[in-house]
Each structure stands twice: as structure tokens, then as C-alpha cells.
Amino acid sequence: MKTPSPTIRNYALLSLLLLLLTAFAAPGPRKIKLYLIGDSTMANKVRQVFPETGWGMPLVTFFDSAQVTVDNRAQNGRSTRTFLAENRWQPIVDALKEGDYVFIQFGHNDEAENYPDRYTSPEDYRKNLIKFVTETRGKKSNPVLLTPITRLRFDKSGHITETHVAYSKVTTEVATQYQVPLIDLDKMSRDLVQQFGPENAKLLYLQLAPGDHPNYPYGRQDGTHFSELGARKMAQLAMSQVIAQKLPLLSERLAKPTAKNAVPPATNGKDAQPTTP
């Protein structure tokens, strides 16, 4: 039997060593899921309603997709009560794993007294939020409560009107009582809309004149749902709090800039860098 050459023996030993190192190497961080539960202001949209955009749609771009999966379960027209009654919550509980996150943002439909099929009293709204929080924690996952985003409603003096007083208050109280991270999108979005002003703020919402878009030939004056710009701005507000509050796991897994995007902007003509399309 012919004896293997030293080169072949060395190659075999190196291959075996690499295999052993790979087998015993520490595994990388587990990919976590960020579940979004809420209403139409957060939900994914179909092309037939474009440019209406839920703020959960651009949220995915803020995370490293190799480490975080954003699973948007928000649905148009749902309150906390109907989300539970339609069995939309239990499948999420069953799927939750340790370290996952659940962003919980309701209120728009809970407070709609003129829609009895979805209305939820503040007392029941509180109970439902507590259920979401406690059952998320029961799976060693992380609940985050978010107050509902403001509607486009200015008073005659040009000041944004607070439109979710009772339900934002309950959300804040539950967050305090159960020591849950709170993202106060109600206040943050009101501040943002006020900065835009009564006219420019229309750019954030689904405000279309007749002929602006084929999906809305007669136009649309909607002060609840967002344009693409508005959805992105609301997602930025939420992400600013993920970073500011240093939410574990999420704040560590943000998307990294590409080499091209990481180049600082030119300060003058001499510093300008040519770009490739």
C-alpha cells in the first residue's frame, strides 16, 4: 500500500482541524423576531391602496435582516378586543421565543364609539394591554407599548389637537405599572406634525387631490393614514426611542451603513466624490 505524501497528510490534518474548530465554535447570535401588533396605521398595505403606507412597512429597513425579522401582524380596523376575538394574538404567543419582541400599538379603533363592532372601553383596553404584556413575558419575550399616533387635526389657531387622550393615558399607565418600555408616539408625532404646520403636515398623511394617483381618481382627504413620507417619519420616531432607550437586542442589531452610504458628504467642490449609478 502506497504511503500518502507529506503534503497530502498535512492537508488532511488541516482539514480535520478546521472541521473541529467549526464544530466547537461558539454559535452566532440567534436571529430574533420583532412582532408588530396593532391597527391600520402600522399595517402592511396592498398595492391597490398605495400610496397609503403603514409605518411598520419601512421599519424593516432599520434592522440587520440577518439578525432581526420584522413580522408585521397589524391589521386594518382592529382594536385590542377584535384582535383577540379573531384569534390573531394566540398564534403569536405560540410562536414567541426567548428574546423576541412585541411592539403593541392600538387605540385608534378602540376609541371609535361610533363603530360598536370594534369599540373597546378604556377599562377593557387596559385589560387587553395587560394580557398582551403578561403573555409576552410568559414566553420570556419583550413587550413594548406604543401610544397611538396622532391624527391630522389642527385647531383654528394652528395648534395640533390631541386626539387620543384617554387611550394614550391608559397605555402610559400600564407601561408604568408593569415596567414596560414605552414609546410615546402620540406625543412625538404631535410634536412632529406641529413642526410641519397645518399645510406641510398634509404631506405626512393620505391627502390627495383628484388625479394625483390612479388609485384615488376622486382624491382622498385622510387624516389618519400615512403617505410613504409619513410612514417613514413615524418609523423614524419609533426607532429613535429604540436607540435612546437602548432596548436590549434590538438596539444591538441595527442595520449597518454600506460603504458607499458611510462616506461623509462633500464639504466643497474639491472634496466631492464621483458616484456610480
UniProtKB/TrEMBL annotation:
The lineage of its organism: Bacteria, Pseudomonadati, Bacteroidota, Cytophagia, Cytophagales. SUPFAM superfamilies: SGNH hydrolase. InterPro entries: RhgT-like (IPR037459), SGNH_hydro (IPR013830), SGNH_hydro_sf (IPR036514). Belongs to the 'GDSL' lipolytic enzyme family. Residues 255-277 are annotated as: Disordered. The keyword Membrane does not apply. Residues 36-232 form the SGNH hydrolase-type esterase domain. The keyword Signal applies. Residues 1-25 form the signal peptide. This is Rhamnogalacturonan acetylesterase. Keywords: Hydrolase, Signal.
